[in-house]
Amino acid sequence: DYLQPYPNRKDSYFVFSAASHFPSGLQASRAGMLFKTLRSRSKSSCPKEGAAGWGEWWFDAGHPHVSARKPSMLEFYHRFVALDEKNTEQPLTLAFPQGARFAASRDRIQARPRSYYVRLLHQLSHSSDPIEGFWMEAAWYDVLHPEALQSKAPACSLPALPNGTSSASGKDASEVALRRRMSARGLIPLTLRAPTTCSLIDVDDNNEGLEASGYLPVLEASGYSPVGSLG
Fold first, then answer.
1. Which SS3 state, helix, strand or coil, does residue 15 take?
2. Phi then psi for 103, rounded to 5 degrees?
3. Which has more confidence, 49 or 170?
């Protein structure tokens, strides 16, 4: 797909598999990337179901997108990607292909002058593991599409953001909630990839840890023994 010239008559090919909000660090995952059995999986840039094709926003305090290293994503994006330095405090949500997997034509790349890329390269050349590398992964679509910056308009329909990170679930719980939702709609089988160790969830004798995480209802519906299966 990435080697096909001008797929769907477009001069670039991006399949958005993740989204991040800055500065909160909240993230969302595309359902089609999590479940290979999803009946509505597609190769389109955004899910066919719109916002319903994404999982709930989740938060991981240890993820690089929550990093306090400088420059921040907002500073980097507005200064070096969007070139609107006056808006460095403006919150931002970016959809992007994980791993920076995409294809672009020569004309699409040359929509920006060479000096633009030289300036970006300089920002990533000061260390062997610059935080800017993570920022670039999330910003490549905007780098190559100056006429369609996500700071101006979203590239995909996304779920509504929760009220702060404290009300967001963890990544595992978000995936379970999405599986339940997709199963209820008949889009995937009602099965669950159970954690291999109890260390992933704080489980007590009453299964309260499983209930809080969202695993217990799905485990029971799938025929699992709630605690015994998590050895």
1. coil
2. -135, 145
3. 49
